Amino acid sequence: MASEPDSGRDGTSDGVSDGASDGTVHGDRAPEAAAERPTARTSVWLDGKPAARGRRNDRTDAPSGLDRDRITSVSVRLLDTEGPAKFSMRRLAAELGVTAMSLYWYVDTKDDLLELALDSVYAEITGIGAPATDVTAGPDWRERLRELAFQHRDLLVRHHWVSPLVGKYLNIGPRSMEFSAAVQEAMRGTGLSPRGQAGAIAAVFQFVYGFGTVEGHFVQRCADAGLSQDAYFRRAMGAIREQPGLESAFANADSRPGC
């Protein structure tokens, strides 16, 4: 079932139209107004919006007890439990006990909020954000990359909604960039050329992204089915082995990949 549309500030269907579907303008508005359309959205990180925004000081009717960090944190929790398809400003407002329009004191659009939520989860990766150090004096670059790769995989599995949002939004928030900087700092220890470092990073982390995405969806599918991951896997493998000609091919597939 599709989620109910949000406020028009989200760009969804219950915003008020200024004209007919053919582009004509009704009422007293001048024809030139039809050309005064808002510019296309780019990213919360590119549109000149502040990194943090609290309650506006020029009005007294803004909701109390809210701030952007709290709104973002609850958004992450809803995305974890319900997924991005069911996420809406109205659903978020209900969880916070406020009206949907109250949220717009702190974010301009739902897309902005999703970008903030996406960036916020990268704070869960440990050991990033520290000042750059001499890569020859720290841990072996292989161990450092392995650690970062495993943490990134765990992030994608823990928050199954991150993968599609990474593909949709420009993921250049401060926490994401701290993670990227840590990866590049570790890769400098390889001694590869800058071009070689870029290629190596792409090879490692595109693999991690793909594996983590598939595993994250598997975890969510098990949860939806009410089964443990091992029980779901065994059930699936049992069905596969019942197919003619596949029993011997999958005879040794008794555990999930990566386990």
UniProtKB/TrEMBL annotation:
Residues 88-107 bind DNA. One of its GO terms (molecular function) is transcription cis-regulatory region binding. Residues 1-12, 25-39, 55-67 have a biased composition (Basic and acidic residues). The keyword DNA-binding applies. Residues 65-125 form the HTH tetR-type domain. The keyword Nucleus does not apply. Keywords: DNA-binding, Transcription, Transcription regulation. Pfam families: TetR_C_1, TetR_N. One of its GO terms (biological process) is negative regulation of DNA-templated transcription. Residues 1-67 are annotated as: Disordered. This is TetR/AcrR family transcriptional regulator. The lineage of its organism: Bacteria, Bacillati, Actinomycetota, Actinomycetes, Kitasatosporales.
